[in-house]
């Protein structure tokens, strides 16, 4: 398993299309929820 | 179940409470600058450290400055540890690498470095086949101290934010770290190491011994400075073993007494911090209510684990094995357990080290019964609020307290307030993120590892399919996210054909994803906790009125337990169903 380069690229190539689609949708929803939560806050 | 088993549990709870109360008062004195009994001993070194580090202890920091100092300190620690571990052979001149071990591969070292920096001590490697004494002492043990210190100072900073009445300062990071190490960790570590040596732990720099067994074979007996590392491993709720089998090894945990003693010192600081909070807030009952919450959940976990392990698994009964108590045996499920620990000593140890972020093990968790094995899962699912790691436990449960106050306030229709400070949208946003970020990271990493063949490559071949394989994966990322470090053994990130690392290689996916899991789930909640401290520090305190919801009585304890269980169950129950619950419902042996 060594010397495979970026692990992210590796696992995407070894993942089912439906799993990958679900992953992308989940990440987008999470990102939007985070944006909506912190909108307007100043740190 | 035996009388001795129940006695062990209740004696443990009594002694813990009796020790934690005075130690909490002592710690309150340490962090409020009052005179302590150890001032004559450590006052000089403390002032000397301020001088050489150019720290002005009178200079308070706001939450951003405090967080910046913490991140810089941690980054430096990460780089230093990675450097030491990757240059292991360069330090041979110290004489502390008698077995001439090479360095572990870069990916395993990335995982190990992130692991010890974050107080996780997840170990893909076996200490006695991978690390030199120099790496163990100057690298890993140093981080055991520092990572424990980081957890404690964040809790102290959050307390100052909650009780603060004078503007934006939440303390001085450097002063808090120095005082934590000198006044809290050092004396406890020295005392503990002496007790361990007295009981049979070893502390030497010898080469490994070769023993000739009765059957004519030879056996290598690993040596090393074990007692000193074991002490801070337990006190700092680190959990990374000097040896691969951790506290099941007779040099780490030699006797039934050390088993009891080690459990006690794991929970001492997390329990004392709660009483410290009560004292610092000027209302000891606030501490008592949090302690009661933790203790009820802790006892529940112990009782379930003990009964489950004493009863044995459905698979053992189906196979006709005898699991009842007979003279000379505690009965129960003894697979993967040490005789000197027995069922109670193993079950309680497991609960102690999984409610905290310790993760030390004296028995094989993957050999527990389905329900017994579900207990550490449930403990980790509670996200370190049942005592939790040193510091992390207190700041995590204080976030749950704020959430419970907010929900309680909504239910009775009044503005939520805690210790006179109004809890508003900003605090609740930070609390929500602080609470949810760890479970989210754990589930995200588990999903990635389960859905990809690169992740499934780490599952042991014996459990390649079925619930045990899922349990291994889920436990691995849940444990790393909670900075616990215990494992359902079998999930691998390191392939090592021989001792000493020559010809070994890491499993890049598991090493890097685990490293990310630990770092993100450690530092994001810390930043949120400091953010909450900053948001609360400057708030005005209004006196308690008739409409104020009390947070120091039984009703609030029930509300707090309800909130913790609800959040944990809603987050993790579907995943728990797929692993340990399935195993507990079948007679199939995995």
Largest sheet of chain B: 2 strands, antiparallel
Between the first and last Cα atoms of chain B, what is the distance in angstroms? 25 Å
Calculate Rg of chain A over CA atoms. 16 Å
Average the pLDDT over all residues of chain A and give the rounded result.
74
Write the topology of this structure.
The complex is a heterodimer of chains A (43) and B (590).
Chain A (H helix, E strand, L loop, with lengths): L6 H7 L3 H22 L5
Chain B lengths: L2 H30 L6 H15 L9 H24 L19 H12 L9 H4 L2 H31 L9 H27 L9 E4 L5 E4 L4 H10 L20 H25 L3 H28 L2 H5 L23 H14 L14 H12 L10 H21 L4 E2 L2 E2 L2 H27 L1 H4 L10 H15 L12 E2 L9 E2 L1 H30 L16 H32 L5
Antiparallel strand pairs in B: 1-2, 3-4, 5-6
What can you tell me about this protein's structure?
The complex is a heterodimer of chains A (43) and B (590). Chain A is mainly alpha-helical and 43 residues long. In chain A, 67% of the residues lie in helices and 0% in strands. Chain A has 2 helices and no strands. In chain B, 62% of the residues lie in helices and 3% in strands. In chain B, the strands form 3 sheets. Chain B has a two-stranded antiparallel ribbon with strand order 1-2. In chain B, strands 3-4 form a two-stranded antiparallel sheet. At the A-B interface, α1 and α2 of A face α15, α16, β6 and α18 of B.
């Amino acid at each position: 398993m060594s010397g495979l380069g970026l692990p992210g690229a590796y696992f995407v190539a070894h993942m089912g299309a439906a799993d990958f689609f679900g992953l992308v949708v989940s990440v987008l929803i999470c990102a939007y929820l985070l944006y909506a939560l912190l909108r307007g806050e100043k740190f | 179940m035996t009388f001795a088993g129940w006695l062990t549990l209740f004696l443990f709870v009594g002694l813990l409470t009796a020790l934690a109360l005075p130690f909490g008062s002592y710690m309150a004195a340490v962090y409020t600058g009052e005179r302590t009994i150890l001032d004559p001993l450590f006052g000089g070194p403390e002032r000397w450290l301020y001088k050489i580090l150019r720290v002005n202890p009178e200079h308070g920091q706001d939450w951003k400055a405090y967080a910046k100092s913490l991140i810089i300190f941690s980054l430096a620690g990460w780089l230093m540890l990675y450097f030491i571990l990757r240059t292991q052979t360069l330090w041979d001149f110290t004489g502390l690498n008698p077995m001439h071990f090479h360095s572990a591969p870069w990916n395993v070292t990335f995982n190990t470095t992130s692991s010890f920096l974050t107080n996780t001590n997840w170990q893909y490697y076996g200490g006695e086949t991978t690390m030199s004494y120099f790496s163990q002492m100057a690298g890993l043990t140093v981080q055991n101290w520092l990572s424990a210190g980081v957890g404690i100072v964040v809790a102290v900073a959050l307390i100052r934010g909650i009780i603060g009445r004078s503007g934006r300062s939440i303390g001085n990071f450097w002063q808090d770290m120095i005082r934590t190490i000198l006044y809290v960790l050092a004396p406890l570590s020295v005392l503990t190491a002496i007790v361990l040596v007295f009981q049979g732990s070893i502390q030497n720099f010898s080469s490994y011994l070769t023993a000739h067994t009765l059957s004519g074979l030879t056996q290598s007996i690993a040596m090393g400075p074990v007692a000193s590392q074991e002490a801070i491993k337990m006190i700092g709720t680190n959990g990374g073993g000097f040896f691969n089998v951790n506290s099941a090894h007779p040099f780490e945990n030699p006797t039934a007494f050390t088993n009891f003693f080690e459990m006690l010192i794991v929970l001492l600081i997390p329990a004392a911090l709660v009483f410290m909070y009560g004292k610092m807030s000027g209302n000891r009952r606030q501490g008592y209510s949090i302690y009661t919450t933790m203790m009820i959940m802790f006892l529940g976990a112990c009782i379930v684990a003990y009964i489950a392990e004493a009863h044995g698994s459905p698979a053992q009964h189906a196979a006709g094995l005898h699991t009842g108590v007979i003279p000379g045996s505690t009965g129960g499920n003894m697979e993967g357990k040490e005789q000197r620990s027995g069922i109670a000593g193993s079950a309680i140890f497991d609960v102690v080290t999984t409610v905290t972020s310790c993760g030390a093990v004296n028995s094989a968790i993957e050999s527990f019964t389905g329900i017994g094995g579900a207990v550490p899962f449930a403990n980790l699912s509670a996200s370190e609020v049942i005592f939790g790691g040193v510091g992390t436990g207190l700041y995590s449960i204080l976030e749950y307290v704020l959430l419970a106050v907010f929900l309680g306030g909504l239910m009775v229709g009044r503005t939520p307030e805690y210790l006179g400070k109004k809890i508003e949208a900003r605090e609740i946003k930070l609390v929500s993120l602080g609470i949810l970020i760890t479970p989210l990271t754990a589930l995200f990493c588990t999903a990635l590892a389960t859905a990809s063949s690169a992740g499934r490559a780490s599952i042991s071949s014996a459990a390649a399919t079925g619930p045990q394989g899922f349990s291994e994966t889920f436990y691995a990322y849940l444990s790393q996210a909670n900075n616990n470090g215990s494992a359902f053994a079998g999930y691998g990130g390191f392939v090592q054909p021989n001792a000493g690392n020559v010809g070994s290689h890491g499993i890049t996916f598991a090493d890097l994803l685990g490293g990310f899991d630990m770092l993100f789930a450690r530092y994001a909640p810390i930043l949120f906790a400091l953010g909450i401290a900053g948001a609360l520090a400057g708030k005005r305190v209004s006196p308690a009125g008739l409409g104020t919801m009390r947070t120091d009585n039984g009703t609030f304890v029930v509300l707090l337990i309800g909130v913790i269980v609800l959040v944990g169950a809603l987050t993790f129950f579907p995943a728990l169903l797929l692993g340990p619950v399935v195993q507990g419902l079948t007679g199939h042996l995995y």
